[in-house]
Amino acid sequence: MQRVLVTGGAGFIGSFLCENLLAQGHDVICLDNFFTGSKRNIFHLMGSNRFELIRHDIIHPIFLEVDRIYHFACPASPVHYQFNPVKTVKTNVMGTINMLGMAKRVKCRLLQASTSEVYGDPQVHPQTESYWGHVNPIGIRSCYDEGKRIAETLTMDYHRQNNVDVRIIRIFNTYGPRMALNDGRVVSNFIVQALQNQDITVYGEGEQTRSFCYVSDLVKGIMTMMETENFIGPVNLGNPDEFTIMELAKNVIELTGSRSKIRHLPLPQDDPTQRRPDISLAKEKLNWEPTIKLRDGLTDTISYFDKMLTSVKKAENV
Ligand code: NAD
Ligand code: UDP
């Protein structure tokens, strides 16, 4: 049994980590400032005497004694990380220094949640971990892309300079229940729009591609990486099945039986044209690969958002 800290634990991925770590018998501290996370995501865990919730912003130091840190605190949707870009940089720089400082002080292992965004608008396809990326340092996505790149740098420097035990994962587009209704990323947007028969907002022609990983597959990969010895990464974690955004829209319309029409909106600046993980390294080192097909994952996610929308409507009518 370990004492485990999950930063960003009230968020989409973080809440599943808290839940799975508790199920394995660990003591879990969930730390979150609730910028994009929600108490609703972890409400069902609050009855456990092995679960603790701390409202805290990681840009400020905090002193805790733990054995593991899953460092996930950072807004991940372009809409949210661009809302206050300076804060996004502070979260990635000051927040990551604070967490690495804690790992150094208490000699615990820290897993850094990095992202496929470190590859920017990639010119190598699919993306391997050895690719250094193609990132605009001064664009509207830079606060996140460069923020996560410096967080990787810090992680490696604390490792080399201070012997901190670290792991780095690069997560590719992940979706599932507990994404916020207003998250703004493509899967939740399309599902919420389709369930309400509103226009589906496809940015640009919809020819850009992404590879979507269901959250339960991802969480298995993350937890395996944390407990794997003699391999610090970085390692790509994602589903290599690649789809155009238009294909995603069509799947969502079909699975929801929606009357929604497609509406094209301008493509945001620096939107990557293609993205697909090469997961050979994860297969080799972690014996991990995703198993959930897009349509199955979408079906579960649709049923989650359907319930959420129904409960919002009920609350509005009270
Ligand atoms: P999310 O927005 O649901 O979760 C982020 C959590 O961090 C939220 O609970 C938020 O309130 C919290 N947070 C943000 N800033 C904070 C701060 N300064 N102090 C304390 N808490 C703070 O997003 P998510 O999809 O669950 O992403 C979690 C992590 O995984 C992020 O680090 C993200 O960069 C990474 N990631 C996610 C994806 C994906 O597809 N979901 C892809 C790549 C990387
Ligand atoms: N996208 C879209 N409509 C939306 C939201 C996103 O067409 O309502 C597109 C977006 O332009 C991008 C892709 O979907 O090409 C994935 O966007 P998301 O914000 O989910 O993640 P990221 O761009 O960070 O991969």
Rg result:
19 Å
User: What fraction of residues sit in β-strands?
Assistant: 15-25%
Ligand kinds: nicotinamide-adenine-dinucleotide, uridine-5'-diphosphate
CATH topology name of one domain, in short, is Rossmann fold
Care to count the β-strands?
13
- What would CATH call the class of one domain? Alpha Beta
Distance between the termini: 44 Å
Task: Characterise the protein shown here.
The chain is globular, with a radius of gyration of 19 Å. The protein has nine helices and 13 strands. Helix 1 packs across helix 6 and helix 7 crosses helix 9. By secondary structure, it is of the alpha/beta class. It has a domain at 3-175 and 214-240 and 276-292: Rossmann fold (3-Layer(aba) Sandwich), CATH 3.40.50.720. Strand 1 (3-7), helix 1 and strand 2 (27-32) form a beta-alpha-beta unit. The strands form four sheets. Strands 3-2-1-4-5-6-11 form a seven-stranded parallel β-sheet, with helices on both faces. Helix content is 39%, strand content 17%. Bound molecules: nicotinamide-adenine-dinucleotide (NAD) and uridine-5'-diphosphate. The site of uridine-5'-diphosphate has 14 residues, from helix 5 and strand 8. Nicotinamide-adenine-dinucleotide binds at residues 8, 10-14, 32-37, 57-59, 72-76, 91, 95, 113, 115, 171, 173-174.
